[in-house]
Amino acid sequence: MSNCIVLESLSKSFGSKDVLNEIRLQIPEGEFFGLLGPSGAGKTTLIKILTGQIGYQGTAKVFNEHCKDIGREIYSKVGMVLDNCGIYERLSCYDNLLLFCKLYSVPKSEIKVILDKVGLNKVGKMPAGRMSKGQKQRLLLARAVLHKPKLLFLDEPTSGLDPMTVEEIHNYLLELKRHGTTIFLTTHNMTEAYQMCDKIALLNEGYIVEYGEPEEICRKYNTENMITILCKDGKELVVPNRPDSAATISSCFEANKVETIHSSEPNLETVFKQLTGRGLL
Protein backbone atom coordinates (compact mmCIF):
# COMPACT_ATOMS: atom_id res chain seq x y z
CA MET A 1 0.00 0.00 0.00
CA SER A 2 1.41 3.39 -0.99
CA ASN A 3 1.55 6.38 1.33
CA CYS A 4 -0.87 9.26 0.93
CA ILE A 5 1.14 11.62 3.18
CA VAL A 6 4.87 11.60 3.94
CA LEU A 7 6.55 13.98 6.39
CA GLU A 8 10.29 13.95 7.06
CA SER A 9 12.05 16.36 9.42
CA LEU A 10 9.18 18.80 8.95
CA SER A 11 9.52 22.04 10.92
CA LYS A 12 7.73 25.37 10.92
CA SER A 13 8.50 28.61 12.73
CA PHE A 14 6.72 31.95 12.89
CA GLY A 15 9.46 34.43 13.73
CA SER A 16 11.20 33.16 16.85
CA LYS A 17 8.38 30.78 17.75
CA ASP A 18 8.85 27.14 16.77
CA VAL A 19 5.42 25.68 15.97
CA LEU A 20 6.42 22.28 14.52
CA ASN A 21 9.67 20.45 15.21
CA GLU A 22 11.16 17.57 13.21
CA ILE A 23 7.81 15.90 12.45
CA ARG A 24 8.10 12.47 10.84
CA LEU A 25 4.98 10.62 9.67
CA GLN A 26 3.83 8.23 6.99
CA ILE A 27 0.09 7.87 6.45
CA PRO A 28 -0.97 5.06 4.07
CA GLU A 29 -3.82 5.49 1.62
CA GLY A 30 -7.16 4.53 3.16
CA GLU A 31 -6.08 5.12 6.77
CA PHE A 32 -8.10 7.06 9.34
CA PHE A 33 -5.37 9.07 11.06
CA GLY A 34 -5.78 11.33 14.08
CA LEU A 35 -3.49 14.17 15.17
CA LEU A 36 -4.28 14.93 18.80
CA GLY A 37 -3.25 17.82 20.96
CA PRO A 38 -4.44 20.93 22.79
CA SER A 39 -5.12 24.28 21.16
CA GLY A 40 -1.84 25.83 20.03
CA ALA A 41 -0.04 22.50 19.66
CA GLY A 42 0.43 22.97 15.89
CA LYS A 43 -2.42 20.85 14.49
CA THR A 44 -3.97 23.47 12.23
CA THR A 45 -0.53 24.65 11.10
CA LEU A 46 0.24 21.14 9.88
CA ILE A 47 -2.98 21.00 7.87
CA LYS A 48 -2.14 24.36 6.28
CA ILE A 49 1.25 22.97 5.26
CA LEU A 50 -0.26 19.80 3.83
CA THR A 51 -2.78 21.80 1.81
CA GLY A 52 -0.14 24.13 0.39
CA GLN A 53 -1.24 27.25 2.26
CA ILE A 54 2.03 28.04 4.04
CA GLY A 55 5.73 27.25 3.63
CA TYR A 56 7.85 24.95 5.78
CA GLN A 57 11.26 23.44 6.33
CA GLY A 58 11.96 19.76 5.64
CA THR A 59 9.85 17.43 3.51
CA ALA A 60 6.06 17.31 3.19
CA LYS A 61 4.43 15.30 0.41
CA VAL A 62 0.82 14.56 -0.49
CA PHE A 63 0.24 11.91 -3.16
CA ASN A 64 4.02 11.98 -3.71
CA GLU A 65 3.91 15.69 -4.59
CA HIS A 66 5.81 18.24 -2.51
CA CYS A 67 3.30 20.44 -0.71
CA LYS A 68 5.15 23.55 -1.92
CA ASP A 69 4.23 22.52 -5.47
CA ILE A 70 0.62 21.46 -4.99
CA GLY A 71 -1.51 22.33 -8.00
CA ARG A 72 -4.96 21.74 -9.47
CA GLU A 73 -4.45 17.99 -9.94
CA ILE A 74 -3.74 17.43 -6.24
CA TYR A 75 -6.41 19.85 -5.03
CA SER A 76 -8.99 17.94 -7.06
CA LYS A 77 -8.26 14.91 -4.86
CA VAL A 78 -8.55 16.78 -1.53
CA GLY A 79 -11.50 17.81 0.63
CA MET A 80 -11.34 20.01 3.73
CA VAL A 81 -13.59 20.74 6.69
CA LEU A 82 -11.87 23.56 8.57
CA ASP A 83 -13.05 26.13 11.10
CA ASN A 84 -12.42 28.95 8.65
CA CYS A 85 -14.35 27.37 5.75
CA GLY A 86 -17.10 29.89 5.04
CA ILE A 87 -20.65 29.09 4.03
CA TYR A 88 -22.61 31.44 1.76
CA GLU A 89 -25.36 32.15 4.26
CA ARG A 90 -27.74 33.88 1.84
CA LEU A 91 -27.70 30.89 -0.47
CA SER A 92 -29.75 27.80 0.22
CA CYS A 93 -28.13 24.58 1.34
CA TYR A 94 -28.66 23.21 -2.18
CA ASP A 95 -27.23 26.28 -3.90
CA ASN A 96 -24.12 26.23 -1.71
CA LEU A 97 -23.42 22.77 -3.09
CA LEU A 98 -24.45 23.74 -6.62
CA LEU A 99 -21.73 26.40 -6.63
CA PHE A 100 -19.10 23.79 -5.79
CA CYS A 101 -20.51 21.39 -8.38
CA LYS A 102 -19.68 24.03 -10.98
CA LEU A 103 -16.20 24.61 -9.55
CA TYR A 104 -15.35 20.90 -9.53
CA SER A 105 -17.32 19.93 -12.68
CA VAL A 106 -19.50 17.57 -10.63
CA PRO A 107 -22.96 16.66 -12.02
CA LYS A 108 -25.63 18.48 -10.02
CA SER A 109 -27.44 15.15 -9.62
CA GLU A 110 -24.80 14.37 -6.97
CA ILE A 111 -26.25 17.08 -4.69
CA LYS A 112 -29.32 15.05 -3.76
CA VAL A 113 -27.15 11.99 -3.16
CA ILE A 114 -24.82 13.78 -0.78
CA LEU A 115 -27.66 15.62 1.02
CA ASP A 116 -29.21 12.23 1.75
CA LYS A 117 -25.88 10.89 2.98
CA VAL A 118 -25.36 13.69 5.53
CA GLY A 119 -29.01 13.94 6.58
CA LEU A 120 -29.81 17.33 5.02
CA ASN A 121 -32.32 16.19 2.41
CA LYS A 122 -35.21 17.94 4.23
CA VAL A 123 -33.49 21.34 4.46
CA GLY A 124 -32.08 21.66 0.95
CA LYS A 125 -34.06 24.84 0.26
CA MET A 126 -33.29 26.46 3.62
CA PRO A 127 -30.95 29.50 3.57
CA ALA A 128 -27.66 28.42 5.13
CA GLY A 129 -27.82 31.36 7.54
CA ARG A 130 -30.90 29.84 9.19
CA MET A 131 -29.36 26.42 9.71
CA SER A 132 -28.29 25.14 13.12
CA LYS A 133 -24.62 24.64 13.97
CA GLY A 134 -24.95 20.91 13.44
CA GLN A 135 -26.64 21.39 10.07
CA LYS A 136 -23.93 23.82 8.97
CA GLN A 137 -21.27 21.32 9.96
CA ARG A 138 -22.98 18.66 7.87
CA LEU A 139 -23.14 21.12 4.97
CA LEU A 140 -19.39 21.73 5.27
CA LEU A 141 -18.82 17.98 5.20
CA ALA A 142 -21.13 17.57 2.20
CA ARG A 143 -19.27 20.30 0.36
CA ALA A 144 -15.90 18.73 1.20
CA VAL A 145 -16.82 15.29 -0.16
CA LEU A 146 -19.00 16.38 -3.09
CA HIS A 147 -16.20 15.67 -5.58
CA LYS A 148 -15.33 12.30 -3.96
CA PRO A 149 -11.87 13.26 -2.66
CA LYS A 150 -9.21 10.66 -2.01
CA LEU A 151 -7.94 12.64 1.01
CA LEU A 152 -10.16 14.42 3.54
CA PHE A 153 -8.86 16.88 6.15
CA LEU A 154 -11.04 17.40 9.21
CA ASP A 155 -10.14 20.08 11.76
CA GLU A 156 -12.25 19.56 14.92
CA PRO A 157 -15.28 18.52 12.79
CA THR A 158 -17.63 17.65 15.68
CA SER A 159 -16.67 20.31 18.23
CA GLY A 160 -19.75 21.58 20.07
CA LEU A 161 -22.23 19.29 18.31
CA ASP A 162 -24.91 17.20 19.99
CA PRO A 163 -24.23 13.45 20.45
CA MET A 164 -26.74 12.34 17.78
CA THR A 165 -25.20 14.60 15.13
CA VAL A 166 -21.72 13.44 16.12
CA GLU A 167 -22.74 9.79 15.75
CA GLU A 168 -24.25 10.41 12.30
CA ILE A 169 -21.12 12.24 11.12
CA HIS A 170 -18.92 9.45 12.49
CA ASN A 171 -20.96 6.81 10.65
CA TYR A 172 -20.60 8.68 7.38
CA LEU A 173 -16.85 9.16 7.86
CA LEU A 174 -16.42 5.43 8.44
CA GLU A 175 -18.37 4.78 5.24
CA LEU A 176 -15.96 7.06 3.36
CA LYS A 177 -13.03 5.14 4.84
CA ARG A 178 -14.51 1.83 3.72
CA HIS A 179 -14.57 3.22 0.19
CA GLY A 180 -10.86 4.07 0.35
CA THR A 181 -10.78 7.73 1.45
CA THR A 182 -7.79 8.68 3.58
CA ILE A 183 -8.96 10.78 6.52
CA PHE A 184 -6.72 13.17 8.45
CA LEU A 185 -8.45 14.25 11.66
CA THR A 186 -7.22 16.87 14.12
CA THR A 187 -8.96 16.95 17.47
CA HIS A 188 -8.53 17.32 21.21
CA ASN A 189 -11.41 14.88 21.73
CA MET A 190 -9.60 11.75 22.84
CA THR A 191 -12.74 9.59 22.92
CA GLU A 192 -13.49 10.46 19.30
CA ALA A 193 -9.94 9.64 18.26
CA TYR A 194 -9.90 6.33 20.16
CA GLN A 195 -13.12 5.18 18.52
CA MET A 196 -12.43 6.36 14.98
CA CYS A 197 -8.70 6.29 14.20
CA ASP A 198 -6.47 3.49 12.95
CA LYS A 199 -3.36 5.39 14.08
CA ILE A 200 -2.86 8.54 16.12
CA ALA A 201 -0.04 10.91 16.94
CA LEU A 202 0.01 12.95 20.15
CA LEU A 203 1.31 16.46 19.44
CA ASN A 204 2.57 18.73 22.20
CA GLU A 205 4.33 22.06 21.69
CA GLY A 206 5.25 21.13 18.13
CA TYR A 207 6.66 17.67 18.90
CA ILE A 208 5.10 14.25 18.36
CA VAL A 209 5.40 12.65 21.79
CA GLU A 210 3.73 9.32 20.93
CA TYR A 211 2.46 7.50 17.85
CA GLY A 212 0.63 4.25 17.16
CA GLU A 213 -2.70 2.48 17.42
CA PRO A 214 -4.89 3.97 20.17
CA GLU A 215 -5.35 0.68 22.02
CA GLU A 216 -1.63 -0.13 21.88
CA ILE A 217 -0.72 3.28 23.26
CA CYS A 218 -3.14 2.88 26.17
CA ARG A 219 -1.79 -0.59 26.97
CA LYS A 220 1.79 0.69 26.77
CA TYR A 221 1.16 3.16 29.59
CA ASN A 222 -0.82 0.80 31.79
CA THR A 223 1.52 1.17 34.76
CA GLU A 224 -1.07 0.12 37.37
CA ASN A 225 -2.06 -3.15 35.62
CA MET A 226 -4.98 -3.82 37.97
CA ILE A 227 -8.42 -5.38 37.57
CA THR A 228 -11.42 -3.77 39.26
CA ILE A 229 -14.55 -5.78 40.05
CA LEU A 230 -17.73 -3.97 41.03
CA CYS A 231 -19.89 -6.36 42.98
CA LYS A 232 -23.68 -6.41 42.96
CA ASP A 233 -23.75 -5.33 46.61
CA GLY A 234 -21.87 -2.14 45.67
CA LYS A 235 -18.48 -3.23 47.02
CA GLU A 236 -15.41 -2.79 44.82
CA LEU A 237 -12.62 -5.33 44.62
CA VAL A 238 -9.27 -4.36 43.10
CA VAL A 239 -6.72 -7.10 42.38
CA PRO A 240 -3.41 -7.20 40.44
CA ASN A 241 -3.66 -8.36 36.83
CA ARG A 242 -1.59 -11.51 37.52
CA PRO A 243 -2.18 -15.27 37.36
CA ASP A 244 -2.37 -15.51 41.16
CA SER A 245 -5.54 -13.33 41.07
CA ALA A 246 -7.39 -15.89 38.96
CA ALA A 247 -8.87 -17.76 41.95
CA THR A 248 -10.26 -14.56 43.49
CA ILE A 249 -11.82 -13.44 40.21
CA SER A 250 -13.23 -16.92 39.54
CA SER A 251 -14.82 -17.11 42.98
CA CYS A 252 -16.63 -13.80 42.39
CA PHE A 253 -18.16 -15.14 39.18
CA GLU A 254 -19.03 -18.49 40.76
CA ALA A 255 -20.85 -16.68 43.55
CA ASN A 256 -22.68 -14.52 41.00
CA LYS A 257 -21.33 -11.35 42.65
CA VAL A 258 -19.99 -9.54 39.57
CA GLU A 259 -21.78 -6.43 38.29
CA THR A 260 -18.90 -5.14 36.12
CA ILE A 261 -15.22 -5.93 35.62
CA HIS A 262 -12.59 -3.66 34.11
CA SER A 263 -8.86 -3.67 33.51
CA SER A 264 -6.89 -0.54 34.32
CA GLU A 265 -5.70 0.67 30.89
CA PRO A 266 -5.57 4.46 30.92
CA ASN A 267 -7.48 6.45 28.32
CA LEU A 268 -5.70 8.71 25.83
CA GLU A 269 -6.34 11.77 27.98
CA THR A 270 -4.51 10.15 30.89
CA VAL A 271 -1.64 9.08 28.62
CA PHE A 272 -1.29 12.59 27.27
CA LYS A 273 -1.14 14.04 30.79
CA GLN A 274 1.41 11.42 31.78
CA LEU A 275 3.62 12.33 28.81
CA THR A 276 3.28 16.11 28.92
CA GLY A 277 2.09 17.08 32.38
CA ARG A 278 -0.86 18.97 30.85
CA GLY A 279 -4.41 18.38 29.66
CA LEU A 280 -5.89 18.82 26.22
CA LEU A 281 -7.98 21.95 26.77
Structure description:
The chain has 281 residues and is α/β, with parallel strands linked by helices. It has two domains: 3-218, Rossmann fold, CATH 3.40.50; 223-264, no CATH class. It is built from ten helices and 13 strands. It has helices spanning 43-50, 72-75, 93-104, 109-117, 133-145, 163-178, 190-196, 214-220, 246-254, 268-276, and strands spanning 3-14, 17-28, 32-36, 57-62, 65-66, 78-81, 151-155, 182-187, 199-204, 207-212, 226-231, 236-240, 258-263. A six-stranded mixed sheet has the order 6-7-8-3-9-10, with helices on both faces. Helix 3 (93-104) packs across helix 4 (109-117). The longest helix has 16 residues, at 163-178. The protein is globular. The chain starts with a strand and ends in a 5-residue tail after the last helix. The mean pLDDT is 90.
Short description:
The chain has 281 residues and is of the alpha/beta class.
